[in-house]
Amino acid sequence: MVISGRCDDIGCWVGKLPKGCKLCMEGLKSVVFTTGLCPENCFYCPISLAKKGKDVMYVNETPVRDLKDLLMEVVVSGSKGVGVTGGDPLVKVDDVVKMIKHLKEFLGDGFHIHLYTTGFLVNDKNLTALVNAGLDELRIHVTGEHSFKALKKALEYPIDVGVENPVLPNSLNFLKDVILKSSELGVKFVNLNELEASESNYEKFLQRGFKVGVDGVSVEGSKDVALEILKWVDNAGIDVSVHFCPAVFKDRYQFRKRLRRRFVRSKRVFEWGKGGLVKWIEVSVDEISNSSLKALWLADLAFKAGDKLLTGRRVGSLLKNLKVSYDLVEGYPTTPRKVLNVFQIS
């Protein structure tokens, strides 16, 4: 039976969700972007121009320099697992193995780690190293016969193995074939992602006659194909779990839940917020007397940053009563804080 629930936002599925998806739905997965390098060249790849083809590393869109930075971001986000992505992480397999060992060592064997690849670089050497390091789940993006060979090889190891592919509007028969072959091999699950539009693939979509939906994120026809596949799998009784994940899910659920958790764990004493957004007040130190500055510092109600004083609502109300101009700043609770809006209050 198709579990539709709120299929417009969290998706729908036949069978059981993989553990990685369950944690993701609760905002409990951090996203580790290991590298923008990849041996494939998929025209629909949504990776941003700032990352694509570049050997850079991010965790939850925050640039990191080393394993210490990575661990700090994962911990402050309150994550119970990570999704390792790229590019193709196996291009940097030695670094990925070190990362997995590092996370498992500090966060325990129960910390869940899944990894995405097309299978182009899957072999016994890499699989042995990844599994020994503590990899829990491997997701292969099927791009050709090498992907099926990789699936067959991965199934020899004690990890959960699945398929994860974007749904192109003209890919109905291709994806049906992928699901049938995956089921025959004994793959645990197939994830179908709504085709996502971005700055890096938009023109290529237009060249192929694809249309971007009114949400500005998804491609028209992708969801329709995915739902048709789900009904087909359900009616045919195919022995594999299939999950459709909408493009809007990341922003509406996964991203916001992770931000709310991160705000609670990284909140500075002068900040407040709601729904994953953080707010604080900035006022020029020239606007406040030295005696008032000292009193605020001693009471831990304000902190000096350059020529600005960072403070919270209580002081903001006082400043307003004193007719002192200040900025109300709103942003994401990232490190450093990502400013979204600045409202001038006078």
Please tell me about this protein's structure.
The chain has 346 residues and is α/β, with parallel strands linked by helices. It folds into 2 domains: 2-259, TIM Barrel (Alpha-Beta Barrel); 267-345, no CATH class. The chain contains 11 helices and 17 strands. It has helices spanning 19-25, 67-76, 93-107, 124-133, 145-154, 172-185, 202-207, 222-236, 249-266, 290-298, 313-321, and strands at residues 2-3, 12-14, 29-33, 58-59, 62-63, 81-85, 112-117, 137-140, 160-167, 189-194, 241-245, 272-274, 277-284, 302-305, 308-311, 326-332, 338-345. The strands form 2 sheets. Strands 1-2-11-10-9-8-7-6-3-4-5 form an 11-stranded mixed sheet, sandwiched between helices. Strands 12, 13, 14, 15, 16 and 17 form a 6-stranded antiparallel sheet that branches. A hairpin with a 2-residue loop joins strand 14 and strand 15. Helix 3 (93-107) runs parallel beside helix 4. The chain is elongated and about 75 Å long. The termini are far apart. The model is unreliable at 1-6 (pLDDT under 50). One of its GO terms (molecular function) is catalytic activity. InterPro entries: Aldolase_TIM (IPR013785), MJ0021-like (IPR040087), rSAM (IPR007197), rSAM_sf (IPR058240). Pfam families: Radical_SAM. Residues 23-234 form the Radical SAM core domain. This is Radical SAM core domain-containing protein.
